Amino acid sequence: MIGFLRGKLMAKHPPQLVLDVGGVGYELDAPMSTFYGLPAIGTEITLRTHLVVREDAHILFGFGSERERQMFRELLKVSNVGPKLALAILSGMSVDNFLRCVEAGDADSMVKIPGVGRKTAERLIVEMRDRVKGFGVASLVAANGTHDPGVGAGPQAEAFSALVALGYKPAEVTRLLKGVSAEAQSTEDIIRQALKAASSK
Q1: Which of residues 159 and 2 earns the better pLDDT score?
Q2: Domains annotated on the chain, with CATH
Q3: CA–CA distance, 187 with 53 (Å, rounded to integer)
């Protein structure tokens, strides 16, 4: 198994990119969440990888963070979810947003992703509910403790974790965060607005 590749970014044509590693060009498929964080062509980067072996092809997938790769692998364990759909899910929403959807049972948000129907969304929620526990607050803290490019929890995710730690249920936190204005950029501002909304209910 190829664990990671470090080399020069030679081409990026979503969802594919080419990485020059010691004179060998590796073609990889990557989710849009990874593409958003890619630097300019010619820059050296490191990508975590996952190799899918089929009868007709060996397909290498690349990820900007360990959390993305871990989620990709967990998605592949879900019934009727293959690499293509797993890639679409990671392209349609961030790992943190997916976790919130699973915890809140939010199938409506999932069905907006191409290829995810109502039955698939419900299956994802049921089968991923226990598996995503390892991606919770502890996972976010561990990720933030490393200097891993692309593993940023982000203000919304940090606010979500903080509110859950304060005792709010995930579904309630999801509802509160939807009401936060776009002007709130920092974690503190997001939490402040969410708590104000909660106290006014």
Answers
A1: 2
A2: 4-65 (2.40.50.140), 153-201 (1.10.8.10)
A3: 41
